[in-house]
Amino acid sequence: MLRPASMTTWIGSVGLVSFALAWIPQSWETIREGRCGANRSFLALSALGSLFLAGYAFLRGDAVFASLNALTTAGALVNVYFSLFPRASGSRGNAPSSADDKNRLFFLTAAHFSDTITE
Fold first, then answer.
1. Is pTM beyond 0.70 here?
2. What is the DSSP letter of 87?
3. φ, ψ dihedrals at 77, nearest 5°
4. What is the count of structural domains for the chain?
5. 50/75 Cα distance (integer angstroms)
6. Which structural domain, as residue segments, surrounds residue 101?
7. CATH value at residue 62
8. What percent of the chain has pLDDT over 90?
9. Helices (H), 1-119
10. Using an 8 Å Cβ cutoff, are 82 and 31 in contact?
11. Which of 44, 50, 42 is nearest to 72 (CA)?
């Protein structure tokens, strides 16, 4: 049978793994799509709260609670980043993402060259 101290550590560890794993699907989808549609206030408050709780747990010497909050801070910050700076859909950089964007780029480039030639 587990002693009470090791029982609480085990319970805390299961909670740590479960809660940290909950951020993985959202963060993976956000990275894959290059944007995050989650509420920015929720994400910002989650990141801030987790960051301060990680610091608090670290100062108290609670490795389980500090790890949990460090991981959830990272997950929240990934989502905050892509919420603020979304990648163009369907692209991995600054390339146009749709036929409309490509057409717009073509016409802007053509207009620029025609202005350059006529000057």
1. no
2. P
3. -65, -35
4. 1
5. 10
6. 15-118
7. 1.20.1280
8. 30
9. 4-33, 40-60, 63-84, 99-118
10. yes
11. 50
